[in-house]
Amino acid sequence: MESCDKVASKYYCLYCGYNTSKSSSYNKHLLTAKHKKLTKGNESKQQVSKSCSEIKCEKCNKIYNSRVGLWKHKKKCSQKPLENTLTITDITNPSIIMNLIKENQEFKSLLIEQNKKQEELINKVIELSREPRIVNHGTMTQNNNNKFNLQVFLNDTCKDAITLQQFIDNIHISLEDLENVGRNGYLKGISDIFINKLNTLDITKRPIHCTDVKREVIYLKEEDTWNKDDKDNTKLKNAIRTVEDKNWNKIPEWQRENPDVIHSDTPEYKMREKIMRNIADHDNVEKMREKVVKVLAKETHVDKSEDNSIMDIETVKP
């Protein structure tokens, strides 16, 4: 390595994109939860890149080739020091993202508890509605026997479907999947992973079926039974969250396959920033999950015209 006599060395963490000129700060970084998560405890494999740091004016950020040039410039520089400058690295720093995730857990737990109470109330209403009812409209009669036809489709036609848990466990994220999230964004990237896996299964083997695209009525195979997801599709969103985590955990492998990621002026560095930003944009992640649900509802919608055993509950019979 070339001599950098009067220039401080730079320490760079390959896994996290963290850099500093102080070894003490770098050692503190190695103890952070974010670093341990990405390296999975393999500190012995951690690589540190040292290079000459830039000679830069602290007031105006102009860069010089020598300290003499900087010294002359400082005599004339009248600009006030820049403060509170938020860089792209700040926004996409994994530690900030992970802190936001942690802060959201309490709020999510409260929502889940409320959803459980709502689901209990809905189940009571459904139990009451199962009693046969006859509504006269002239010569027209409505009854709930049609609901049974949907159950026949799920429990008989689709009795050999795999469970949602098995489906998620069988999803293995490739490096191409990860780059697709970086290039095309969260919605298309995550949706494509689900759709590609669904397309490998026969319709009767799929663990997800939608009976109403507009209302996003989703049925999921769990253990040996088919269950209707709640009105917020909490279970399906949890599955989507699991696929998010699988993408995040794939980043260290992607970095090992793309060693130029340590250089900020390379396409690999920019791709990693896009991947991390798209996976963990927590200001919009809940909205993005809802959009993925909409895509999956259309993809798994049961075409009732092709199977006479599946009929709308609202169908009216004479």
From TrEMBL:
SMART domains: ZnF_C2H2
Chain ranges of the C2H2-type domain: 11-35, 55-75
Name of protein: C2H2-type domain-containing protein
Originating species: viral metagenome
Lineage, opening ranks: unclassified sequences, metagenomes, organismal metagenomes
